[in-house]
Structure formats: C-alpha cells, structure tokens
Amino acid sequence: MNRKFAITILYVLPIPVLILSLLIGSSVKVGIYDIYDLLFRPEYSSDLTRTIIFDIRLPRILLVFITGGMLALTGSVLQAVFRNPLVDPYVLGLSSGAAFGAALGIASHVIPVKLSAFIFGLVAVALSWFMARKNKEVSIVSLILAGIITNGIFTSLLTIVQIMSDPFKLQSIVHWIMGNFHNASWDQLSMIMLPVMAGCIIIFVLRWKLNVLALGDEEAASSGLNPNRLKIWVLLAATLAGSAVVAVSGIIGLYGLIIPHITRMLFGVDNRRTLIYNLLLGGSFLVIIDNFSRTMAGYEIPIGVFTMLVGAPFFIWLLKKSNIGWQQ
Amino acid sequence: MRISNYIYLNCFSLCIVVLMVACKGNTAQEKQYTDIQVTDFRGQKLQLEQPAQKVVCLIESALSGIYMLGQQESVVGVPGDVYRGENWDRYADLDIRIKNKSLPTPGNWDFVSLEQVVGLEPDLVIIWSSQIQAIENIERFDIPVYAVMLHDIDDVFKEISDLGKLFGREERASELIGFTKAELGKLKQIQITKNRKTAYFMWAQGINETSGSNSMVESLFQLAGVKNACELPDEHVTINIEKLYDWDPDMIVMWYNEKLNPADVISNPLLKGLKAVQNENVYELPSAFECDFWTLKFLYSSQLVHFWAYGNTDMSSEPAADAMLQFLYNNNKTDE
Question: Cα(A220)–Cα(B267) distance, rounded to whole angstroms?
Fold first, then answer.
C-alpha cells in the first residue's frame, strides 16, 4: 500500500515540481501576479514576463529535468550491466572525456564547446571499451579498469589544456567542470533531444533483459541472450544519452550514483519498473536542486555544489532508514 | 518676366530651400544616431540609437571606467565582486546604491543569470569577450553587448574611449585619456639608459605565479622603466624557484596580498639567495582598487614601481595618488 502510494506520488511529482519551478526565479520583475496574467489574462501580460517564463525559465527547467532523469537512468542501467553498486555514468571516462572536449573548445575556439564535449565523451567510452576488449570479449573488471585508465588519460590532457590556457579561459574551463545550466535555451534542448531519445528508446526496449544481464553473463547466455551484444547496445545507448546531457550541463558529480540507490531503496531492483522511476525522480529532484542554484544569489551558483549539499544528507538519511541498505 | 512667373519662381526657390533645410535636419538627426557606433573587442560593430541609459556592467574594471565618466546613474546591474572586500568599501563611497547593496548583481564571471539580465531590461550589457555562451544568450534577446578583452594599455584607452561614446560622454573620456597620457609622458621623459633594473612580478597566489611578455604587467614595467624578469611569453605563468634564481631580479613587486607582505617574502629561506631579497627590494602594491591594471589607474602602479626602482620622489607620494583618484573619479561621491 505504502509502495503503491509512493509510486503514485512519483508519477505525479514532476507536474507540481515543474509548475512551481516556473514560478521561482531570480528576476524581481516577474512575480506571481505577472504569471497569473500571462496564463489567464494574456492581454494584460507584458513581453518581459512572456520572455522570462517561456524563453528563459521553461527551457531551463525542461533541460534540467531531462539531464537529471538521464543521469539517474544511465547510472541505474550501468549499475545493472556492471553488477556493481559503485558505478555511475562517468565510470567509463565519459566525464573526463567531455571535460577535455569542453576545455579544448573553450581554449581553441575551433570547435563548438558542446559538440566537442559530446564527441570526446563518446571517444572516451569507446577507448575504454577497446582497451578492455580481449579475444572479442569484454570482462566487467577489465572494463572498469579501462575506464579508470581512460579517466586518467583525459584528466592529464585536460590539465595540459588548462596549463596552456590564459586565466580567463582557465576560469571558464573550471566553471564548466563545476556543472551549470545558466546557458540553457531551446536550442540546447533541441540539440540533445535526438541522442537522448535514441538512448532512451534503446534502454526501454531492452529493460527486461537488464534483469537477466544483472544475474551474470552465464545466466544471460543460458537464457538465450547474447550478453556481449546486449552490453554493447546498452552501453551505446547510455553513452549517447549521457554524453548529450553532460555536454550541455557540465559535470554533475555523483548524481548518477545517488539517485539509482535512492530509487532502489524505495522501489526495489526490478529494472523493468525502476528505469522510469529513476527518470522521474532524477529529473524532479534535479529541478528542485536547480531552483536553489538559480535563486540563492543574484548570480548563478554551480548546480554541482547543491547536488552534493542537498543530495548527500538526504541519501545518508535514507541509507540509515532503509532496510535494503548495502550494509546487508 | 511676367510677375506671376516671378512669384512661381520665388515659391519654387522657397520650397527647395525648405526641403534642403528639412533634409539637412534629417541628416543631422541620422548623424546623431549613427554617431554612437563602436567596435568592441570581438570586432563586432555596436550601434546605439541614443546614449546608454540602463547598463548592466559585469566587469569590475569597466564599472570603474563608467564611474570615471560620471555615468553611475545609468548602471542597473553590477558584478558580484563589487560587494566584496575592498571593492565594496571604495564603491560604497562612490554610490549610495552600492553602499546599501541595492544594485542587483546578475553575474559574476561565467555565472551570468540570464533571467536577471533580461529582467533588468538594459539597453547595454558590458561583459568579458571570453564569455561566448553568455554573450550569445544575451544577444538572443536583442540586447546590445559590448564585449571587452584587455591585453595592454592601448586596450584600456580604447575601452574608455568606447564607453565615452556609448554613454555620450566623449569629452570626459578624452579628458581622462589626455590626463593619463600626459602623466605617463612624464614617466617616459625619464629615460633609463644605464642600470635598467629588472623586476619580478608576484601575483597574490604566491611567489611562483607571475606574468610574461604578453601581459599588462609587461606594459606596466615598461612604463615604469624597469625590465620584466620573466621572459616567457605567457600572460600568466607558474614558474619554479630555480627559474627565479636564473633570472635573479633586482626587485620583486607583489600584487596586493592579504596573506603575505614583503617581510614574509624577505624572510622566506627558499628565496634568501635572490639579489632582491638580500637587498630587501621587495614591494607590495598597496591596494587592488587603486592599482587596478585594467583601468586608467595603472598610472599609479607605474609611478610606484618607478619610485621603488629609482627613488624618484616626484612620483608615488600618497597625495599624488589621492589627486589622481580625485581627478579620475571626478569627486563622484553620492550624497546620502
């Protein structure tokens, strides 16, 4: 009964969160009455209100929701594939690859920052995959080790770019790495939709197979599945979606680790159901956190700061309260 | 000629004259509009129909320029670091709104709140040209952006000149530039041909952080008549102590530092072999506000460095600094 109630809450949660977030902002010129006018008496509404609500707040809130949802979803999927609760979307070098790509874009101006981050995020994961591949097989341990090596390589390359950058560019690189959404726009939203949709569709089509894969390669093979091919598809989908959102948001640390754990503690481990829960909870929670990020000070505060400050205590509280913690 | 023809001719002439006057009037009006046209540091042409009335300035040094021009009333948004430390004390003296922290801060470095900027409905935003994404976003809303990037002193002069045009304060801009150039001219007249001293610049991050030949520090040292010990081309570079010993400068000039003072540097055992340390020729610029290299106030820093290097007492006295600040800020203190 409780779980059903929690699931119902989770399904409807995004609606009030998104609507309330639309009402919250840093501009003093757009208050609740202006929004009322905009929605119910548009003839009395000003262009400024329309611009701030529809061109600034709405695309940002949607982008944050999608990013949060995708980080949680891909984190959950990778934890299932790797059968390891410590895995997050960045385990195969996606974050360091994307950070290097973004730094290269910022420092050189030759390639657009977001495109560069997206491409190098994909390159890093591909590199991990090929480093781990031996005799046409990829073991989980070697893949995670290859991810650590890839992280190291791209972190070193990032450091080289940082050393060679002037203070202004260096500052921009550091700020990008902190993660932020203050440049959110409809363009960015449309830019990520294709890889995000492609990734989501593949993951949701394969979601029941993830449960079999989580049992182990041999069990998956005995069930008639090809675990290697399945892993490739799942990793490809998770990397596509993950790279796309990281390219527009920067690095939001540990979010893709914490939310899948929270979902698992609240709703169990069945991937057929928890994927959608991760998507909804991850999206809603990041929108709530971003509300702090954009309203606490006049200027923007990197969202990565709040994901840890708000998310970590909540996670610890849940961990202590839950009976399905990892202590067992 | 018949009288009627004579009247027609006169009427026709009158019409032509009226039309010419009218056209001349329009031309003058157009000229007035197109006069406000500058090219920013990205190379982008910026055109305003009238002098800027509501400005969001996200660069502290450019904000200083606006106050020097006496246009603080036009400022509707300032960078966040204006409300911190010494900056706040100094700007609070110049503007009651800053004293009361009532001016919005829609951005600090890369963290620009697009919503706040748009909400302030500015007719001009001043921002670093390196903030490409923020600029793109602001320009999407048809808000004119003046992007700044300062590499040397000529850039500082260009910035003040451009701001003068954008605010309709060209005369004041010329006056400021003229004053600074005249004062710098006095420094240039003192030709240092023999025993030109070498100086090492130390940023607030520590003794290893300095600036090379493509930097404002290089310009500052040139004006002061000293040679930059750091021969590397970088604007900002981290060097090791061995390199510093290779250069062995005659003097060390410290950027304003809250944690270290010259005595700390002199007593640092790692540095005891340096000529500058042995001779106790280590100096600290007294204030980040007064010595800001990215404004016309670099004049004061140049004078100080020159004084420390060669002991020319005409330069650097405190009254001289006060007089310079009073002239630059035009005694722009607001009444409470």
Answer: 69
